[in-house]
Design goal:
two-stranded antiparallel sheet, mainly alpha, 2 domains, ABC transporter involved in vitamin B12 uptake, BtuC, globular
Length: 387
């Protein structure tokens, strides 16, 4: 009975590590290529989870086949949506902060707070105002690009367009909220956590040697394997994958050889953000979805990247599975129950037998490990990393 409980805890830890791995894949690629510490990565996971919730509700209304297969549609839409949001973030914010890590960290942290408040407050009025503002501003910028005779007043024209677009969007939102108070001002999600119902074929499990294996967690592990395989093939077999690896190794030399480094940055950030959306979809199968969902995983995800070795796929796999499994074994009291024959050790691990305290112990172990191998399990190699 004790052995079966231990094996079940190991399996649950591996499934959590699988979620961390999907999220860390994108973060490892972005951090390894650009050196960008993206504090909004957790909120991209949150957007993927909320996307799954919306797709689930839409397909539940259709019923039948649609609800049973909504998870596949949610994965595709979550990837596309978060990739687009990541691309906008890279082009609108991060692109202007390369080589300034502190400013990048603060900017992405601010974006994470904005996205958290966005999902708490989003309603039809706010959505209409955002769409109208975007159409006016970016449409005006596109028209401005068609004319090159503005000279030195170009920046002033852009500032006026920004002010006018914001004013029109705000006035429109105010009119709508005052005219249709009950119809359009109700928040879509609110601050409370929301539950996602898995399809019926993911709600059961299989018993193997006395160990209960939920289908939802098996699905997450299979999804992780597919994502890892897809990223590996993309990086090793595609033309853009070759360019990403080249820029990661030596950005200056890659630029001299004609590789469009800015376009590589944009594609890489969009890919990493899309993987975060898939991770968010997987998270929704493990628990409820809320504005703080991403914050529960972002620190662990960064730890995976650092421990595994920045930008190293194999290191991320080993680190994510190790961190996820050890955290679950400690937090679920599995280790303390195994050590009941040794009371001092059992009491020690029982003290850390909560989710929060288990993370504290794992972080302490990670700090000790990094004293031994500061570059991670599999450090990057090359001239750019040896300097």
């Amino acid at each position: 009975m004790l052995i079966s409980g231990f094996l079940e805890a190991v399996f649950n830890g591996i499934s959590i590590g699988a979620v961390l791995l999907i999220a860390a894949l994108g973060l490892a690629i972005v951090f390894g290529l650009m050196g960008v510490i993206n504090m909004a990565h957790g909120e991209l996971m949150m957007l993927g989870a909320y996307t799954t919730f919306v797709i689930q509700n839409a397909c539940k209304q259709l019923g039948g086949f649609w609800f049973e297969s909504y998870i596949f549609l949610a994965l595709i839409i979550a990837f596309i949506l978060t990739a687009v949001v990541g691309l906008i973030l890279e082009q609108g914010v991060i692109k202007y902060l390369y080589g300034r890590p502190l400013e990048t960290l603060l900017a992405t942290w601010g974006v994470s707070l904005i996205l958290q408040q966005f999902v708490r407050s989003i309603n039809w009025v706010l959505m209409i105002a955002i769409v109208l503002f975007s159409l006016l501003l970016f449409g005006g910028l596109w028209l401005l690009k068609q004319r090159t005779n503005f000279g030195q007043i170009r920046q002033w024209v852009v500032a006026v367009m920004l002010f006018l677009s914001l004013g029109v969007a705000t006035a429109t939102g105010k009119v709508l909220s005052e005219t249709y108070k009950l119809a359009v001002t109700q928040p879509w999600f609110g601050a409370q956590n929301l539950d996602v119902s898995a399809p019926s074929w993911l709600q059961d499990g299989i018993s193997l040697g006395g160990v209960q294996l939920p289908y939802a967690r098996l699905f997450i592990i299979a999804l992780t394997i597919i994502c890892v395989g897809g990223v590996y093939l993309f990086l090793q077999q595609s033309r853009w994958g070759l360019r990403i690896r080249a820029v990661t190794q030596n950005r200056s030399m890659s630029a001299c050889l004609g590789i469009p480094t800015q376009k590589v940055d944009a594609i890489t950030f969009a890919l990493g953000s899309g993987l975060a959306g898939i991770a968010g979809c997987a998270i929704s199968l493990l628990g409820s979805v809320g504005p703080n969902t991403g914050q529960n995983y972002i620190v662990d995800t960064f730890m995976v990247v650092v421990v595994g070795g920045v930008g190293n796929l194999a290191g991320s796999i080993v680190a994510s599975l190790a961190i996820g499994t050890i955290t679950y074994l400690i937090g679920s009291e599995t280790i303390s129950r195994l050590l009941t024959a040794i009371p001092p050790l059992a009491d020690f691990f029982n003290f850390f037998a909560t989710t929060s305290m288990a993370k504290v112990m794992v972080f302490a172990l990670i700090i000790a490990f990094l004293q031994w191998k500061p570059a991670g399990i599999f450090p990057q190699k090359g001239r750019a990393f040896d300097v």
